[in-house]
Amino acid sequence: MSQNPLDRSNFTRPQLRPPGDADKVLLHSCCAPCSGEVMEAIKASGIDYTIYFYNPNIHPREEYDLRKEENIRFAEKNGIPFIDADYDVDDWFVRAKGMEWEPEKGARCTMCFDMRFERTALYAHENGFSVITSCLGISRWKSMEQINECGERAAAKYPGLTYWTYNWRKQGGSQRMLEISKEERFYMQEYCGCIYSLRDSNKWRVAQGRPKIVIGEKYYGPEVDSQPAA
Ligand code: SF4
What we know:
- The chain has a single domain, classed as HUPs (Rossmann fold).
- About 40% of the residues lie in helices and about 10% in strands.
- It is built from seven helices and five strands.
- Strands 3-2-1-4-5 form a five-stranded parallel sheet, with helices on both faces.
- Iron/sulfur cluster (SF4) binds near residues 57, 108, 109, 193 and 197.
- Belongs to the QueH family.
């Protein structure tokens, strides 16, 4: 493992420029595996950034704490400011009411992204950021279009705030996400995050003859070859 995980000199990267050539970016993060590569890409372009962790969708609390602590550990290792926002799970359940049986990428997920980006945009507005972005779209399990629409909708509430729709999967980003996760031996979530995605993932696994998900059991390592399900 390299001493500085953001110093991978054998990997050529494009020079990224945030919208409006902003000198700092607020990065909404859902977990360490998804944000690791995005952090590396932003850092490699010399852009100042802060991580904003606001994910009241994650259930149960044990899983939420695992994902958050892993993200904090990696941020601290690299000296990146980390904002630990509320876990206002009651509000998330109020908003999800009536959407319990929505499929992934459906209306419940739009609500979920909206809620997380609304808070991110508010924090950005109150703390002098003109650009927000998110690592959510790096996962191939997600709809980049859906995420970008939610991000842009949230940013549009504040004058001068822009959601950066950069496709973090490009230029080998998806592969780097996996490599960093293995090198760092990140905790590996096996479902998107909410109680309904846990239910549906377990239902699918049982139908495949596989055991149900055990919270806190799986970590990335050399033998693992799949992306996080978040
Ligand atoms: S499946 Fe994922 S994105 Fe959709 S509502 Fe649940 S946690 Fe949010």
